[in-house]
Design brief:
With 423 residues, the chain is of the alpha+beta class. The chain has 14 helices and 14 strands. Helices cover 38% and strands 24% of the residues. Strands 2, 3, 4, 5, 6 and 9 form a six-stranded antiparallel beta sheet that branches. Strands 1-11-10-7-8 form a five-stranded antiparallel beta sheet. The N and C termini lie far apart (54 Å). 43% of the residues are buried. It binds magnesium ion (MG). The site of magnesium ion has 6 residues, from helix 5. Magnesium ion binds next to helix 5.
Amino acid sequence: MSAPGQHAAATDAGRKRRRNEDAYVVQPPVFAVADGMGGAQAGQLASRLAASAVEEAQGERAGAAGEERVAALVQDANRRVYERSSADESVSGMGTTMTAALVADDRVYVGHVGDSRAYRLRGGRLEQLTEDHSLVGELMRSGKLSPEEAETHPQRSVITRALGTDPDVDVDTFSVDAAPGDVFVLCSDGLTTMVDADTIRSLVEGNRSDLERAAKSLVDAANRAGGEDNITVVVFDIVDARPADESTQTLPAAAPALPAIDDEDTLSGLEHVPAIDDTMLLEAGDWGANGHQTATAPAPPAPAPERAPAPAVPRTRRGRRRVSRLALLLGSLAVVLAAAAAALWGLSRSYFVGATHDGHVAVYQGFPWNLTSGVHLYRARYVSPLLVAQLSQPERLRLFDHDLESYDDALRTVHGYEAQGVP
Ligand code: MG
């Protein structure tokens, strides 16, 4: 008979956010993570409401069979967030992801909405159990984005399904086999957008005997990689309950799932957009003339050797080497400058339709790529009142294909959807 054994949880605001809008539940045999969204403190409220609904309801739902029970827990959480959001205008539109796991009958039952994830580590292999309900997930499943492109995609945090936005929510529910030795990981996207699956696997595997350390090392890895979002990790393993009943609960109960709301200043609803301005982009006016001239007339690498020492003096081997090294350096410099100029020229003339972090459709100038954490090759030029969630899935796939186009074309497309979609 399998049962949850060790468990641990860690959560951190990350390095870029003022508040932690994630919450988690560690109440064996129930575990969950929730990642809230919404302006001001609404995201924090949404994830905490969802987590406390699961904590309170899990006893009442104890009689139901596994899959039904976990689905009911997520629906309870949905209703709790939706009711509050409908009753209180200041938090209207808030929502949260939820990935919940219930260990019962030698299985782990999963209820899932949003882009938090559940993984199972078995025999050294890490398997992602959940499918992301995100714009990027949809684009990837439809073949419009490769997994590599998805990893650095600017809209990778925009989710297409959340708790709290409707009275009923479509919950993915399924179960997987749970055998002694398995380790399950639930986490928010603040981990998975910063740390790849192989690193998650090796950190959990490497700290297999100490899950507290495993959870902490995952959070640390996400922070080292930039910590752009709140990071939450819940880890539990499966033991054979018959002989190990007493020895399994070796760890103290996890810390309270819901950290206190801080009083810090809140960011605006568009808190994620300003990050885009924190980029390497120049003003559009600067890109035009300079960029264009340099791009069309890159300094050729050839002249440098011609300015080498006078041929009358016999060249020593060392002199020739120095000259050719200088030529190489100047040549490389010219190529780099020309490439940079061409890139800036391209950036100034390319637009694409994307979505802001809080789910608004937007027209971006630049290329839809992130160079490294915090360096984006785009900035929002127009943010529409239209929400991604107001579009149907086929509309989303059409609109967010990220084809580069002119500003007028991009704006016309977005206005077209606004005419149909904005109430
Ligand atoms: Mg997140």
